[in-house]
Amino acid sequence: MSHPLDRYLRTDRLPHIWCPGCGIGIVVSAMLRAIDKHISEGHFSHDDVAVVSGIGCAARATLYLNFDSAHVIHGRAIPFAIGLKLVKPRLKVIVIGGDGDIAAIGGNHLLHAARRNVDLTVIMVNNMIYGMTGGQVAPTTPPTIYTTTTPYGNYEYPINVIKLLSALNTNYVARASITHPHLIERYIYKALSIEGLAFIEVLSTCPEVFGRHLGFKNAVEFFNKLKEMVRPYEKPPIERSDIVWGNEIVIGEYVINNREGFVRSVYKSLNKWCKG
Amino acid sequence: MKVEYLTGNYAIAEGAMTAGLKFYAGYPITPSSEIFEYLAKELPKVGGIVVQFEDEIASINAIIGASWAGVKAMTATSGPGFSLMLEGLSLAIMIETPLVIAYVMRTGPSTGIATKSGQYDVMQVRWGAHGNYEIVAYAPWSVQEAYDLTIKSFNVSELLRIPVILLSDATLVHLWERVVMKGPGEVVIVDRKKPKVPKDMYKPYEPDEDLVPPMACFGEGYRVLVESLTHDERGYYKTTNEVQRKLVWRLVNKVRKNKHLVVDSASYFVDDAEYVIVAYGTTARSVYALVKELRSKGVRIGLFRPKSLWPIDDDALVKACSKAKKVFVVENNVGVYVNEVCRFLKNKDVISIPVIDLDIPSPEDILNVMREWL
Amino acid sequence: MRYELLVVGRGGQGVLLLGRILGLAAAKYCNLYVTSCESYAAETRGGDSRVDLILASSEDELDYIKVRGADIALFLHPNSLAKFSNLLKDRSKVFIDSSFPIQSLGIRNVELIKAPYTKLAEKELKNVRVANMVALGHLVGTLKILTQESIERAIDDLVSTEWRDLNKKAFKLGVRITNDEH
Question: Is A84–B65 a contact, with Cβ atoms under 8 angstroms apart?
């Protein structure tokens, strides 16, 4: 018996490595539904999709996806994806990774991809911790929380990537949460039809090395806590995008711009020569 | 065929375009920036793309992505930039990506003197990246050779699906010389081989007899899997000794077993040479002058010049030194490549002649250091 | 055939352009092998600028890239003469701009060829900036290693249309000095 989305998976590689209660599977299946919707509506074909990822739990998604895919090195998925996209603009290039991969080690690449408005869909699964390496502090970890590299509590303040990218006039900036899978799907669907950079942060749970540090006894308890905090809004103001653990966390489509995408800018300058 | 008067940097850029370059990504760094600037102006005229990235890390990863999109790609840099590119170089080796890095050496450590020359980084090129691998690096001694070896770098990178380094220095890239440039059909251009099996049978890391797997690229319908983790022929991550051994040995052996297609060298006056000097890159120019002068005074001395530093043309080296009583290795650094030469000349008296000079060691300076052994 | 040629001047005198025109003309239009390296002070104006050119009829004759014993030297400013005298061969031909006061040269055994390039450029062409081309004309006209036509084609290649005619005029003016001498 096969699932309708199985055609997008390298099913011979299952089961996947994600822990029970991990939120990444929810993100990936929402992404596949969004892709499938586009394909069934004839917007692009299965072979037009490319997925690029770096290193980390979320980045492992490429191992299971039956698209042209690249599982490259930590933090560098975006530059790889830019090279790919510029040469083959027909491809719908999706970058998926965690908050460490995309906002820490790859943070500078994200920032400049946003400045250039590169035509990519970047999905940052934010579990607020380094999961694969065993629970070290991330640039998204809330203050005071125990991690294995901040054993006396996190003494840093987290980065708000939504705010950062809005300052760079990114074309599409949204925050979703694994507690609201239909919104993940809706945002990714939209992102895939947008010119320029589309960035979606998806709040997720890591019950193993984050939930336990927070004192949650199991994945369900952790999930329910996140669900209780998360509130979706239509076009929320950017001022409400800060995440303070325990308070209301606002999700929604924060920024929608219509700047020219990088591919179009590059090819416009190139066409001057091709025509001449 | 067309005769031009070019600097080393311009010749490298022209060589890359002759070889079929279509994507350049880079970050400005002295003394390589003219390659970038020249291509920014010229490459779009032949439908190529040139982009400046936020750093060298992004640059190398972007050309890896571009190469997987199916085009020939390169970057150019110098020491500090190459240091940043090393993780990307290791990735390119692992996922068997054809690309070319034009590395223009300047003085170091650290920022050194950005505009001045040296040969300090020949070992970094060989050993800098993590993991075990063979690297291919060419060291031109003239502007003509910078052009020719750039084409060869692309050809070898495509042939073996490896990153290739064109290693020059600040002196060469600013030198002006006559260059004969080749037109279409006047020089062999190699393109990566494509799969011949049906799409559903294709395995991205399944090699042919030459140990090189045919390369399907993104957007061609093969659903390729680029994998930086240790992988089997399908690209599937595996954590067994068997897969690790098979992969690493194949990556290494595809260069070793195809060495005859890669190595390049030149020998001068070696047939009866009692003394042989080994020198590479610009330093070999000074040594060539010195050798000719000593010859005119009756000294039986010759020059062996590796054009491929990695791997060295060891058969030609051994042959060139067969009658030599002493072998000198002259370098514009503290004497590092001498160790590679020693590996193949175990029973010879091999003497390191390091002469540090911000431009190029002069024949007089070299002779002054060598004199006590002559 | 192999010549080592040294061109020295002060920043802003157009030494590098002169060197490039010479090299391009030799390589592209006279079928010679050329090696040329440039060195200059960090400042755009003032400080020594120097071009070393080695011209050869076969590739084998090219080796070390710098001048060790110049067969020919051109000094667009006499100030640097003493500094570079150790690079001159015995009986080398040394061209000097005599527009500037020349004190004791401190060199012997060379053939000094003096002409007031800067003054000529100023008087005949109302532009001292093309003194370099006057000197080039004198050099090329005297030596007869490169053809005048090859230099003019190199000027076409390297000088923007706006300044091309003036540079060619200056070059021809320099060639005429040679003819006047004979």
Answer: yes
Maximum distance among all Cα pairs of chain B, rounded to whole angstroms? 69
**Domain count across chain A:** 1
ipTM above 0.85, yes or no: yes
User: For a pLDDT cut of 70, what percent of chain A falls above it?
Assistant: 99
Nearest-angstrom CA–CA distance, A184 and A200? 8
Q: Is B88 on the interface with A (CB under 8 A)?
A: yes
CATH 3.10.450.50 for the B265-373 domain, yes or no: no
Are B129 and B84 in contact, with CB atoms under 8 Å apart?
no
Q: d(Cα B269, Cα B255) in Å, to the nearest integer?
A: 30
Chain A contact for B49 (CB, 8 A cutoff): yes
CB contact under 8 A, B4 and C62: no
> How far is A124 from chain B, CA to nearest CA, in Å?
19
Q: Which residues, including other chains, have CB under 8 Å from residue A224's CB and lie 6 or more apart?
A: none
Nearest CA among B368, B356, B276 for reference residue B324: B276
| Of the options 3.30.70.270, 3.30.1330.10, 3.40.920.10, 1.10.150.120, the CATH number for the domain spanning C2-181 | 3.40.920.10
> Does residue C94 have a pLDDT over 50?
yes
Tokens of C122: 């100023």
Q: How many helices (H) and strands (E) does chain A have?
A: 10, 8
Q: How many residues does chain B have?
A: 374
Contact assessment for residue B99 and residue B225, using Cβ atoms and an 8 Å cutoff: no
pLDDT for C120 equals 97
By CB neighbour count within 10 A (0-12 exposed, 13-18 middle, 19+ buried), where does C114 fall? middle
pLDDT digits (tens, 9 = 90+) for B148-204: 999 999 999 999 999 999 999 999 999 999 999 999 899 999 999 999 999 999 999
Return d(Cα A78, Cα A122) in angstroms, integer: 8
* CATH of B2-181 among 3.40.50.970, 3.40.50.300, 3.20.20.70, 3.50.50.60: 3.40.50.970
C47 pLDDT band, cuts 50/70/90, is confident
- Does the structure show a pLDDT above 90 at B374? no
Q: Is the pLDDT of residue C44 over 80?
A: no
Is residue C113 within 8 A of residue C132, CB to CB? The reply is no
Residue type, A19: C
Integer Cα distance of B128 and B118 in angstroms: 18
| Neighbours, chain C (3 or more CB pairs < 8 A) | B
CA–CA separation, A166 and A161 (whole Å): 8
Residues from chain C that touch B288, judged by Cβ atoms under 8 A, are 63-64
CB-CB contact of A121 with A189 (8 Å): no
- Measured CA to CA, the distance from residue C33 to residue B177 in angstroms comes to 7
List chain B domain ranges: 2-181, 265-373
Is the pLDDT confidence value at B49 over 80? yes
Confidence of residue A276 (pLDDT cuts 50, 70, 90): very low
Average pLDDT, integer, range B261-288: 98
What is the extent of the structural domain holding A151? 6-10+18-275
Q: A174 lies in a domain?
A: yes
Task: Residue B175: list chain C partners with CB under 8 A.
Answer: 35-37, 65
pLDDT in tens, B90-117: 999 999 999 999 999 999 999 999 999 9
Counted across chains B and C, CB pairs separated by less than 8 A come out at 65
Task: Answer whether 0.90 is exceeded by the pTM.
Answer: yes
Q: Write down the domain spans for chain C.
A: 2-181
The CATH number given to whatever domain includes residue A214 is: 3.40.50.970
Chain A residues whose CB is inside 8 A of the B218 CB are 50, 68, 70, 84, 88, 91
Please, do chains C and A touch (3+ CB pairs < 8 Å)?
A: no
Assess if residue A71 is contained within a domain.
yes
Residues counted in chain A: 276
Domain assignment present for A163:
yes
In a domain, A1, yes or no: no
